[in-house]
Amino acid sequence: xxxxxxxxxVSGGEMAYVDVGExxxxxxxxGLPTSSFLWRDIAPVLSVGMRVVAPDLLxxxxxxxxxxxxxxxxxxxxxxxxxxxxxxIERFAAVGHGMGGGVAQRxxxxxxxxxxxxxxxxxxxxxxxxxxxxxxxxxxxxTPEAIEALVRGWLEDAVxxxxxxxxEVEAYVRPWRTDPQSLIRAxxxxxxxxxxxxxxxxxxxxxPTFVVWGEDDPxxxxxxxxxxxxxxxxSMVALLPGCGHLVMEDAPDTVAGLVHQFLRRQxxxxxxxxxxxxxxxxxxxxxxxxxxxGAEEED
Length: 299
What we know:
It is a single chain. The protein is of the alpha/beta class. About 35% of the residues lie in helices and about 20% in strands. It has one domain: Rossmann fold, CATH 3.40.50.1820. Helix 3 (about 100-110) links the parallel strand 5 (about 90-100) and strand 6 (about 115-120).
């Protein structure tokens, strides 16, 4: 589904973003090397009853690619906060994937985040992934052909079930083709700093948290999901069998349904929800199902 792109200026440059729906705001934050295109199947579902804002992080998608810009995790959080402020959004739910999950955590630590969803997220000091570290240490030639091959290879490794269409691959590759060096700059900024001391901060977050993970994620192991669940009192952890890093691509209906249900109950407070003493692990029998089919068990 094609979503309209808008633009707004923040201190680091101009950010492209999607803004759909009405109601309490939800900010969707993608990782690297993706863009807001990642949320094309999720945003329309969440926009029923909520205002969904999905930016292209600086250096990614259709946002500016400042040659000397600060693309650290903390700076990305600052840019997203500036965008939200400019849109008149003071409090919101944050949903982040990969690097975007790290950005979402930084936003939550700074306050104003009333609900948090982390999807195959950067966490603690266990990022960037080994694949990203390898690119940082031995970057490929910054030619359009080499960068396109890098992104295509990453997409293939990031899913277990999805076969991308030509148009989908093009949507992910196109932003890097015009400035191949920008991907090397973005990956070089993944320095592993910003979440090292997050364990105590996570435990003190006041809002509800939902952790969603592909059980077969080759970049960020599912053990991180369990560790996040232990660090976040009262959180829920959903492990999606047979899914890779891009769970929104492997199981878009499932992820959209789970996140929408969580936000509807825990953020919009539309239904009564019984509190749990600890993390709840939700196992889905079939990641293609839109509804929650697995049994819940308390740790």
